[in-house]
Design goal:
The chain is about 55% helix and about 10% strand. By secondary structure, the protein is an alpha/beta fold. The chain binds zinc ion.
């Protein structure tokens, strides 16, 4: 295992590789990007690259330092997260780890502190950390991990070098599922398409249950085209109950309108994400409705973004499904 074997994230990797090679790692990084794309994996990889016995500016994955970091018991590398049953990282946790940062490193290399998710530090914890960020102990490396920078104090953010992670491309998720999870078959492409660029999301999907659900969803959006606003309102209410479920529905809806579009334009069944639903796609797809499909695709992704920003789910879904009913999202 080495930095080269990490899937995706070309730019963040380039930045970190250069810093490692030139011996100019920043003392604090802020890794920002969607959940489940590999921010923590890369933070741990960076810690390994700092400590590895066998590779300079990279890691081998097999030496005693790499192994101990992977097992979470390297004395110079700490991951700070909410204690079990707690939602927040307490000020005491931050203080304990800061004290450790000031001790000499066991290996003679940098002491690494990874805070994940950084936004689970409350204001007091963040203020406590700020002091360390302002006057970092020699040879320390602090990595804050966040889905977005919004939950962090501007003073904390400004002390860190920000590295932005994008969602993985569909083929990168598929590559990960094949290479790292040993998965194969049509299901891999489908999961990758449904994952919205998040390996965490791909691994969290129960494929069998999902196959059943999307048949129901396909029937539902097909029926809505008939102009039934009451049905749309009821569907919005049902989907709004769980955030996770609403996001899965909208991820699926994007794949669905993409498929209708691809099939409407090309008539090609092989390029579909919902490969096993060719019959329904052929029935719902019409070359004359290409613009509606493009609009629905955009509306699906806007609605998903709204829910990710914690807007009122029922309202977001209702607006979205009403647009689908009107056929002019
Ligand atoms: Zn190593």
């Amino acid at each position: 295992m080495a930095l080269d074997e990490i899937i995706g994230h070309g730019r963040p990797l380039d930045i970190l590789r250069q810093a490692l090679a030139s011996g100019r790692l920043h003392h604090a990084y802020l890794f920002v990007g969607p959940e489940g794309v590999g921010k923590r994996t890369l933070a741990i990889a960076l810690a390994k690259a700092v400590h590895c016995n066998d590779s300079a500016a990279d890691f081998c994955g097999a030496c005693v330092n790499c192994t101990r970091i992977a097992d979470g018991n390297h004395p110079d590398v700490r991951i700070i997260e909410p204690l079990s049953g707690k939602k927040e990282i307490s000020i005491q946790q931050v203080r304990d780890f800061e004290r450790e940062l000031n001790y000499r490193s066991f290996s003679g290399k940098r002491k690494v502190m990874i805070v994940d998710p950084a936004a689970s530090m409350n204001l007091a914890s963040q203020n406590a950390l700020l002091k360390t960020l302002e006057e970092p102990p020699q040879d320390s490396l602090i990595i804050l991990i966040a889905a977005n920078a919004g939950g962090l104090l501007p003073t904390v953010r400004s002390r860190c070098l920000r590295i932005t992670f994008a969602p993985l491309a569909r083929h990168e998720v598929a590559q990960y599922l094949r290479a790292k999870q040993g998965m194969s078959g049509d299901g891999v492409e489908f999961l990758a398409a449904m994952s919205m660029g998040s390996i965490g999301a791909a691994l969290g999907l129960d494929q069998d249950e999902f196959v059943k659900k999307r048949r129901i969803w396909a029937g539902m959006v097909g029926a809505l085209k008939g102009g039934d606003y009451q049905a749309a309102a009821a569907a919005a209410e049902a989907l709004a109950g769980k955030r996770d479920e609403a996001l899965k529905f909208l991820a699926w809806a994007q794949s669905w309108y993409r498929d209708l579009l691809v099939y409407g334009v090309s008539g090609d069944g092989d390029a579909l994400v919902n490969l096993d639903m060719l019959e329904q796609i052929a029935a719902q797809s019409a070359p004359a409705e290409i613009e509606q499909c493009i609009a629905a695709l955009g509306a699906s992704s806007r609605a998903a973004a709204g829910i990710q920003r914690n807007l009122n789910r029922r309202m977001v879904l209702e607006k979205y499904l009403f647009a689908v009913v009107k056929g002019q999202s």
